[in-house]
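During the no-cost extension, the postdoctoral fellow (Dr. R.K.) reprocessed legacy sequence entries with the updated structure-token encoder. One reprocessed record is reproduced below for audit purposes.
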Amino acid sequence: MTASDALSPALKPPPPPFEAALEAVELELALGKRDTKQDLCEQIIRETVESVGGILLFQIRIGEGRDQRWLGAVAFAEDDRQEYAVISIPCDGSPIEVTPVTQSSLPLASLAVAYANLAQCWAKSRTQGPLETA
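Re-encoded structure tokens follow.
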């Protein structure tokens, strides 16, 4: 056995800091206090995200039966930049999670950033008027 065999495997670098961590925790706690019955979940997510200063990008209900859950993407404005998180609310009563997109394993996480960038471009183009073609 060589010295390199005895060394532990390389550690992964830590995830980038999530500056909006406090807002994400506040959102997770606020959602946990709400009765997230299926018929009211859409409204509850929107209201709760707004109450903690976030911007709801989109939300969707996926799955069937016991695997059904509500997923959403939220943006938090931090200084001159935005940070994004994913909300997961299982309909089976499992704990609600709010996870930074950089730490989420859900495919929805990458869509959150892409959607936010698209929405910002669209909003910017609306204020600048129609594009000129050559």
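The first strand starts at residue 55 and ends at 62. Residues 85 and 99 are 5 Å apart (CA to CA). The remaining legacy entries will be reprocessed before the final report is submitted.
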